[in-house]
User: Fold these one by one.
Assistant:
Number 1:
Amino acid sequence: MTLTDVLVDFARTGRIGPLHCGMPLADAEDLLGPGRPHPAIRLKGPDIDGYPYAWDGLELEVTQRRVSGLWIRLRPGSTTKLPPLVLPESETHEATVLREELTAALDSAGCLHEVNSNLTFGRQSSILTQPANVCAVFSLPGGNDHVPHRDRHYLDVMHKHTA
C-alpha cells in the first residue's frame, strides 16, 4: 500500500482505514495508541472540543470525545509518517503529491471530484470528493519546500468533518 492508495481510499470512502467520523476517541486510541493532544487539551482538559489529537501526519479532531474530523497533513518536498494502521510497513513516506497526480488517481478509481470554490483562491486550490465529502487542499510551494516544480500545486492536507 502506498500513500496515494491511502489518499484515494480516504477520498472515496471518507474513512482512513478503520477510522471514521463519529467513532469514540477511546476506540481510535485503542487502534492507534495514545495520541499527542493539542496544547489546549492539555491545558483545559479532555472535555474541550474542536482540538486535534495527532499521530505524526494524522490528526483526529475531537468533539464530545468523539472523532469529528479526520486530517492527513503533508509537507511537499519532505516526508511524512503515518501510523502503521493507516500506512503499513512504512516509517516515513514521500509527502510530495502533485494535484494532477492525485486527481488522475481519483479518476482511475472512479472517485468523483469537483472544484471546491470556497477554498480555491490566491496560491491555493481545492477539490471536494463525492459522495464522501473529503476536501483536498493544494498550494504552490513555499520558499522552504524542496520540490521539482515551483509553479504547480501540491497537496497540503486532506480532511473530512462531520456535518
Number 2:
Amino acid sequence: MSHDKKTITIIISAVLVLALVIGWCSWRKHVTSVKEAQTSASVHSQKSKTEKKAQKPVLTDEQKEQNKAIALQMEKDMRNWGVDSLADPHQWAKQPADQVLAALRTPDNIETPSDMPVSMKTNQAWGSDAPSYVCNMSDYQSLCDTMPTAQAWWRNEVWGTGSRWVKDPTVTVLDNGKVRVKGTVRSILVTSGDTYSMGGYNALTPAWRDYRIDDVLTIDNDKVSDVEYRSNQYWWINPFLSQWTPDNVADNLGYGSRIAIPVSGGLNWNGMNPTGITRVLNSPTSMGDMDGKVDWSMWDDLIQAGNTAESQQQAPDLDPEKDAATIHERE
C-alpha cells in the first residue's frame, strides 16, 4: 500500500510539473504576442509620422499658379531653340536659295538661357558649350581644335536644327506638389545633299517631326530641382540638358514630314565642311523618289507653267508631263 501511495505521489507531481510547464509556455507566448503587436504598432506609428513629415505641405492656389508658371518657363527654355520649326515653309517658295538657307541656318551662338529656373545639378557634357563629339572620341582628336564645342561641331555637320512647342503645353500641379507638363514639340532638320532641280528651281527638302512631351518637374524655392521624363527624349528637343551626338538624328527626324521647297538659284552650303561622321537626310532624285514621302505641292504651278511653255523654252532637265503624272498618282 505504501508503494502505491508513492507511485501516485510521483504521478501527481509529474502532472503538476507538466501543467506548470504548459502554463508557463502559454504565458510566454501571450507576452511575446503582445510585445510583437506593440512593436508593430509602434513601427507603423513611426512610419506614418515619417510619411506625414515627408509629405509636402498643401500648396495654396497662389503657390500652385506660381509653380505652374515656373514649370512653363522651364519647359520653354529647355525646348525652344535654334531654327524656328513652326515657320511656314510656303513663305520661301520661289525665293532666292541663299535667302531661304539663311533663314534655316542654325544660329552662330546658342547658349543656355541665363534665366532658366533650374537648380538641379547639370552635367558638364550637356549643352552647346560642352566639349564636342569629336573631342570626346579618340579617333577624331585631330578635328578637336577646329570644332572644340558641341555648337561648333554640329553647325559644321548639318545646316539647320531647332525645335519649338507647337502650342503652350498643359501644366498640372499633382497631389504631391510636383508639376506635370504635357504637349507636343516640333523639330526641324536641314542637311546638305538635295540635287533635284526643274525649270531653274532647286528642291530644298527639310524634315519636320513632332514629339510628345510628358515631364514631371519638382520645384523647390522657385527653381526646378528635378525633371522626370515620361516620354522618349532626344537631345535635339532638349539640347541644354543633353549631350549632343550624331546618333540617329537624320534617321529619326527623317520619319517625320518632308516638304520640297522650290528655291531659285543654287544651294550653296557655305560655312560647312562635314566630317562624314553624321548621317544626312535622304534626298529625292525625282518627284517619284522616296515612295511619295516628300510633299511636292509647291511645284504644282511650276509644272502647269511648264506644260504651257514651248519645248525650246524648257530647261533640259524639265519633264513637266512626267512630274505632273507623278504628283497626281500620289493624290
Number 3:
Amino acid sequence: MKKVVISGIIVILVIFGIGMSYMLFRGGRRTEEEQKISEEGEKRMENLMKPGQEEEADDTSKSFSDTLNEKAGLTVDPQNIVSVGNPIISGNYSFTVNSWNVSKESPGYALPEGIDLSGAGPQMDANGNITNEYSYIVVNITVENKAEGPITDLLWGYLKLKTFETSDFISEVRYLGEETPRAYGHEYSMETFEAGETKSYPLIFFMPDEMVKNQELYLEINATGIAYDTSDSEFSVMRYIILN
C-alpha cells in the first residue's frame, strides 16, 4: 500500500506541477477561484487521511477489523469502521446509516426514467416484487457536507455493498428512493450539497439470496473515487459501516 500511496502522491505532484507550469506560461498568478479550489483539494486530502471517527473504536469495530483482515486480507484501522447509527467521516462527508432491511417486496419507490434492470439479476412481477433468488437491500443513509462551501460530487458511486464471500460480485447503488425520481444516466450519482447541508436517502441495492444468508453485510465507502488496492496496508482511505 505504501507503494500505491507514494505512486499516487507522485502523480498528484506531477499534475500539480503541470498546472503550475501552465499558469506561469500564461504569465499570471493563480486567480482567487483557482486558489480556493487548490485549498479545498488540499483540505479534502487532509480529511481523507484522518481517522473516520475521533472516539476510540468500540469492540464491534475492532472485531470487524480482525474479520476484514482474516477474510478479506485487509488491514483497516478500527477507527475507520462504525456500526449502524454512528457517523463516520470520509473526505468532505459524514455518513450515517440509520437503518436497513432485506426484502423481496418492492421498497415502494418509483423507478427513475431511463433505468434498465434487465441485466441486474432480479426478476420482478408487475408490482416490483422480486420472484427469483435475489432480494432488495434498502439502506437508509444520511450524508452531511462537512466542507465550508458547496460541493457537487458523484457521491453515490462511492458506496459499495459487500459481504465477505461475494467473489467477484459487487453491489452498487442501483437507484435512490425518491418521491420524484431523477432521470437515470451517467450523472445519476451526482449530488449537490450546500455548505453544512444534510441529505437522507434510501439506497436500493440488489444481492443474491445465497450471499445474504448467514453473511455480514457492510458498506465500503471510497470518497476518492479511485480504486485503491488496500491489501496489506497500514492505513486506508476506505471507510466501513457494518450493517448490524
Number 4:
Amino acid sequence: MSKGIKMLSAVDTARRPHTLESLQTLEDNKQTIPPLFCDGGQCLVPVRFVPRGMRNNPGKEPSDRAAYIGLTAATTSDHKPGCKYDALGQLKVIVADQSDRDFIDALDAGKSELRLLLLHNRLGGKTLSGVEVPVQPSTGTAQSRRPTAYHLTDKKLDSYLRTTADILKLRERCEADEVLRTNLILRLGDKKIRWSEFFFEPDRYEEAWGMVRRRGDQCHPFAIMGTVERLSLPRTGSTQVNSYLNLVPERNRTDERNIKHTFNVSIGHSDKEWLQKLPADTEVIVFGVWSATAPTSNDVAQKNDPAKLITYVNHGLTLFPKFKAQVIELG
C-alpha cells in the first residue's frame, strides 16, 4: 500500500476512461464506482478511488482531503516499470539526472543517499555540532591531503536546488513516504534524517514547530507543504522591509479550558512583487532553514457570550529564503 503516485484518472474493465471529476460525481450521486485500473501505459494494476472529504486529525480541527486515485489494499505489487505512476521509477530518473556524487551518491542494494550539508550551509544554516565538514578529494600529495573547505559554486547550487525541488514534488504526489524512505537515505554530515522530519504536510505543522524549538540552531533544513492564505505587506510609513506570505495555519480544537493553539507558517522576503505572484489558494512547498517563535497568547471574547473568553495561543514558523527556488509552486 501507498507505494505509488496519486493518480488523476483511471480506466474500468472495458478500458473506458474515468477522471477524478467524473468519479467524484458518481460518488456525490451515490452511484456505483466501477472496478478501476491504472491507465499509465500498459500497467493496468487495480486501483481505487478515494473521494474528497475531511481528514480527521485527533485533537485538531479536521482538514480537507482532496480526491485521488491510488493502489488498492489488495495490490501486492507496485505499478509496472515504465508506468508514469511508478514512484520508484520516477525517483530513479531524478537520481540519474543529478550527476554530482557530492550531492546524491549510490549505495548498496540500489539505494541512494541525498547529502544535504552543502545545501544547508548555503541556505543560511548554522554550523552543526557533530557534523563532518566535506573536504575536497585528495590527489595523493602531502599538501593536498590537508582537509580544505568544499566550495559550492552557483552552478552546482542551482542544480542541487532543482534536484531537491524534484524530489519534494515527487513526495507531494505520493500517497506516503514509503518509497522514498526505503530508497533514498537523507544525510546531513554524519547524521541521518528521517523522512518524517524532512517533509511536513499541513496537519503536521505542530510537529515541525516543536522540532525547531527543541533543536534551535542545530535543526536541519526541511520542507513544509501548504496553501497560501494571504500576503501581509509592510504598513505604510513603517520601517518593516519584508512582506510575509502566510500559509493556511494548522489549528487545534478548543480544549476544555477554552484554549486554542494555532501553528502559523510564514515566508518572509523583501521582494513583495515576487510574493504577490503566489495568490491565495496557491499550493506550495517551501524548503530551507526555519526559525520558530515562542508562543504568544491573546484572549478574545466569544460573540455569543462576551463574558466568556477563548485564549488563542499562536506559534510561528518562519523562513527567509535566500533563493527563490526554495519556494516551489505546485500545479
